[in-house]
Amino acid sequence: MSLLPWHPSTWAHLFDYSKQNRVPQALLITGRRGLGKLELAHEFAHSLLCQHPQDTGLQCGHCDRCLLLKAQTHPDFIQVNPEEPGKSITVGQIRLLNNQLTLKPQFDSSRVVIINPADQMNNAAANAFLKCLEEPTERTTLILVTDNLSRLPATIVSRCQKLTLTHPSKPVVIEWLLQHNSSLLPQQLETLYDLTQGSPLQALDYINKDTLALRNECYKTWLDIANQKKHPIIAAENWHKLAESPLLFWITTWTIDLIKYAYQVNPDKLYNRDFKDSLQPLSQKLNLKGLYDLYDLVLVSRQRISTPINKQSLFEEILIKWHELNQSSSK
Q1: Which of 24, 203, 273, 299 could form a disulfide with 196 if both were Cys (CB 3.0 to 4.6 A apart)?
Q2: Residue 249 in contact with residue 295, Cβ under 8 Å?
Q3: 8-165: which CATH topology?
Q4: pTM of the entire structure?
Q5: So what's the pLDDT on residue 116?
């Protein structure tokens, strides 16, 4: 393993903990999605468990314990994740962790637990996890990773040493993306940077999954509904299948950009600069209050999308609102 190009300064901070023998009992790594928080957590965990770390603090990769880590059989390295993607971390998982922590580490170094994403602990699990924080066990470091700090109970956050990752500079992101795909055009790089708000790993995921093509297709549907060329109900039938995609985020940015155009904001401040030729004229004919109402609805929908709500009905509500907003503007 090696550090991502934007991690060295943060790593230096973590390495200081080790050098000064002040490794936190509980470390909370937070920041926007796509910055490599989990990768950094693994680097730190492996460093703490390695017998012969490098001068930089990174794992050696060759000792017996590094080999156990590589084989995912190290007895003092525990990972707690949702049992299924999108599901909660359950109280049963945390109780099992509590039982494991009653035993001493098998080796003479630290024991490390990574909980990711920590905000996915349900209420019962979070309450049970407080026991780990309130009754720390011998030579154990708990590392919590989250994109959504606000979803973690304050009682947990207050008991952790917090480390917040910030996004790297634009040139660093673009250079790193080109190293992975040298065929990317300047316009594509700009769009990826804007859409992911400078989160390199999310941008790379967009590239690997050809997500820009899906976004362009969804935006065309959005415009077709505005121009009365497609019925919102029919579009919702297709869009509910994309509930796990960034679609709701894209709709949010399209709405925000329309509002920004209404206030004559500099186009460089838009999320979707590549769509400016259609967004600008569209904003001029739409009612501003109606746009704010749509924006409020989308924000509420983003909170509801992770619940058991009927996804098709959710998109129907948004698209009917969008359809009506454009219909009223054409009268």
Answers
A1: 203
A2: no
A3: Rossmann fold (3.40.50)
A4: 0.88
A5: 96
